[in-house]
Amino acid sequence: MEALLVIDVQNGIVESGDFKSELSLMKLVIEDFKKKEKPIIFVRHLDKEQESSLFEGAVGSELHHSLKAYAETIVEKRTPSAFFETGLSETLDKLCVEHVFIIGFNTEFCCMFTAISAFDRGYQVTFIEDATGTANTAESYEMPGLDIRDFVGTVLHWSDAIEVLDYEEYVENYK
């Protein structure tokens, strides 16, 4: 069984930039999983610091309106990994999931950590690179010219542990 993990599509992140393209691709993947009646699990990051836009109870921590209607199952987390001290593994086990697909935010933190954690737990993992986004920039890392999404995708791909696809490849291989 396959399941889709939709990571941290929350107001505090989505409203920090222009993510129309990423949200559009996320919606297409979600609709494909919904049509196939495969599990879709949304993950919400909640911070303990009141200054954070993802502080529990803050408007920024809520799922973004563009995809919120698709969120039937929600897992809450407090670290970059959707597996650490959450019930995600148990949920996936109950659904007999063997293969997870990952989309959402932030590419280089929560999406990447969740992908690696899923692999470590024995799941087959597909990371849909262009259906992830990040609020960070090359300047955030003081690395001019860095394409964060491409860098993370390349590292995961070269690992030979995690399948990395763009949306068009996903359509060719799985739709």
From TrEMBL:
Listed SUPFAM superfamilies: Isochorismatase-like hydrolases (SSF52499)
InterPro entries, per database record: Isochorismatase-like_dom (IPR000868), Isochorismatase-like_hydrls (IPR050272), Isochorismatase-like_sf (IPR036380)
Species, as recorded: Sporosarcina contaminans
Key words, A-Z: Hydrolase
Domain Isochorismatase-like: 3-143
Classification via Pfam families: Isochorismatase
Keyword Ribosomal protein tagged: no
Family assignment from sequence similarity: Belongs to the isochorismatase family.
Keyword Hydrolase: yes
Name of protein: Isochorismatase family protein
